[in-house]
Amino acid sequence: MLSQLCLLAVLAAVHCDVSHLPSHQLEASHQLEASHQLESHESTPPPPPRPYAFSYTVGRFPGHSDRHHAEVSDGSGVVRGTYSYVDPGHKVRRVDYVADREGFHPVLSHAPPEHPVDSDAVAQAKIRHHELYEKIAAEHASNPHPQVPLRQSAAVLAATQQHASLFRVIAEQHARIAAERELLQAEQQLQELGEEH
């Protein structure tokens, strides 16, 4: 108990505010603190490594396994593992890996599938597409708002013609009505003048 009390007193003295002490006492205090730190670093061993290992296997339905993962760490920061999965082509792919201070280093068990080669028709279509794209891009660069002629379908043309025909008939009717109104107004004015005299 007394030794624990003395240790607490030393720790309190090491970590207390000593700015008010004369300089020779400050030097002694710093030497005591430095020796305490040296002792504490030597007396506290580094924590032991914490190795681990795990693995699991799963599947999409009971009795079927299509994914697997296993990993082992020695506790020093190096992790080794492997996992597998079923790719879209229904092939099992496996990846072995090592993760360390330098990064994650995967190694594929199978090379990834090559991309399919274009047929002649697809290659020609791609070339034509790129040519048209470049042509349109050049046109838009020189004239960003082109005036495109209006193209109308047969149905729209027929409806436009019918509308124009109806518009002409209505315009003629309005002109006739306007002429009749003017004639009536002229007759009324003449009657009003005749009655006044």
Automatic annotation (TrEMBL):
InterPro entries (UniProt xref): Cuticle_Struct_Prot, Insect_cuticle
Domain of life of the source: Eukaryota
Taxonomic classification: Eukaryota, Metazoa, Ecdysozoa, Arthropoda, Hexapoda
The name this protein goes by in its record: Cuticular protein
A Pfam match: Chitin_bind_4
Keywords: Cuticle, Signal
Source organism of this protein record: Plutella xylostella
Signal sequence coordinates: 1-16
Entry keyword annotation includes Iron-sulfur: no
Keyword Signal (UniProt): yes
Disordered, as annotated region: 30-51
